[in-house]
Amino acid sequence: MPLYVRSAVENDLAALKRLDVEAFPTEPYPYFVLRQYFDLCRDHLLVLDDGHALYGYLIATPPEAGLSWILSLGVTLDLRGHGLGRRLMVESLRQLHSEHAREVRLSVAHDNDRAVSLYQHLGFTQTGDVRNDYFGPGEDRILMTLDLADSAAPAHETPPSAPGARLNAGRTAGPRWSW
Fold first, then answer.
1. Residue 4 pairs with which residues in a beta bridge?
2. Is residue 144 part of a domain?
3. pTM score, whole prediction
4. Each residue of 12-33: pLDDT tens digit?
5. Under DSSP, is residue 81 helix (H, G, I), strand (E, B) or coil?
6. Are the C-beta atoms of 158 and 93 separated by less than 8 Å?
7. How far is 54 from 105, CA to CA, in rounded Å?
């Protein structure tokens, strides 16, 4: 069945909790945290849905003073590596751009090469050195930033899961997306 990206609804919370446990088995969010994110970021909590189950999710903050944060991105284990995380990111970035976000930030585990590569391909750049103990002892993170100013964000390739994304050739270090 095809998967659709949509905003989460309250009835998704139990399935979202199960998905989060699968995606992050060593440190899943407690249910009450997911509930609060739902209440605070409702339109920015996106899920991948086939009509029967959830297969991925992304939580972003609504833009405030042009700044938004990606708080979490998770995909079921059996579907990782199929472009679903990219698909959620692209949809979220389009939404944030349409809401006049100028900058998007995120943190990622310093040893999560697959996620770092995804974010770099979407145009995120590392901000400074690895931040030791960012989330507590032993929880080192890389901070990354994407500049959405001027209605385009740098990217190294057009993701296959971004229908309608256009690639602009320019005098920049690489191709740029048109949102």
1. 49
2. yes
3. 0.83
4. 999 999 999 999 999 999 999 9
5. coil
6. no
7. 25
